[in-house]
Amino acid sequence: MTRWMMTTAVAMLALTGTAQAQIKLQIGCTATTDCASAMVAVDEGIFKKHGLDAEMVPIAINSNIPAAIMSNSIQIGGPTSTVFLQAADGGLDLVAVAGATVMGPSSNANITAFVRNGITIKEPKDFVGKKVGAPGLGAFLHVLFVKWLVEKGVDPKKVNFVEVTFPTMPDIIKSGGVDAVLTAEPTVSRMLAAGSGSVGARYASELNRSEPIIFYAASRDWATKNPEVIKKFRAAIAEGAKIVNDDREKASASIAKFTKQTIELVKASPPNKSEPELKPEQLAWWIDIMSSQKMLETKLDLNKLILK
Prior knowledge:
By secondary structure, this protein is of the alpha/beta class. It folds into 2 domains: 21-103 and 210-304, D-Maltodextrin-Binding Protein, domain 2 (3-Layer(aba) Sandwich), CATH 3.40.190; 106-207, D-Maltodextrin-Binding Protein, domain 2. The chain is built from 15 helices and 10 strands. α7 links the parallel β6 (131-134) and β7. α12 crosses α13. The radius of gyration is 21 Å and the shape is globular. It is found in: Periplasm. InterPro entries: SsuA/THI5 (IPR015168). Keywords: Signal. This is ABC transporter substrate-binding protein. Its main location: periplasm.
């Protein structure tokens, strides 16, 4: 073998090694701020630094994420706590691999029942008989709203709930397709700026909870077969979470890019707090609430829901 051939072979091996080092990973989330730690980790090259060629994949409705994970359309997704638990209760072998966001004063204030023009909501019972759009029946915002109605003495069965994706909320509110939507920032500011309606209730603020909103999940089979990928993913998410919590400019840029909202609109409200650590006891409240709403049929083992 000539020196030129040897040099070429070494170069090709080096390139092959680099390509192999970058493990492809698709992460699915809806158009909210809750997966901002992953968005930032993609845009700031954090995943690449950890050897992951990660891509953010938009999912229209949160309740579709578990099926996308199980079909391997995505390897990791950001289901809400409620969607994850309902999927696990239904027999899907999912496991949480890292935390995304948690509820808190600022994030709770971002959540509203937004009411279209022509509809007046003065108190919780005014939602009776109304058509209310939720970004997934059984998803986070829907379950919280039902909990709020129950605490206010309103029968949630007297409210007509339908599924409406986040991107279509402004149009469906403007057209009168629903009376209200359960939504969050930056969609709230977008609809207020368009003069489409008003805030009917800030129900999450009244509940005042601090449990997880969204966390990152994978199929147990994939996660157990790829421990090194999980380790790298967690490390990248921890770095991304710090940027989300400390650097509003970078976080806003990544959120705007993924959600396709204007940067001005995204900056109008702070992103939800990123918390990469996830503990079994943090899911206990959600299980109690979902059980009371007859959303769960089995007794879930908290210690098996989170990958060690």
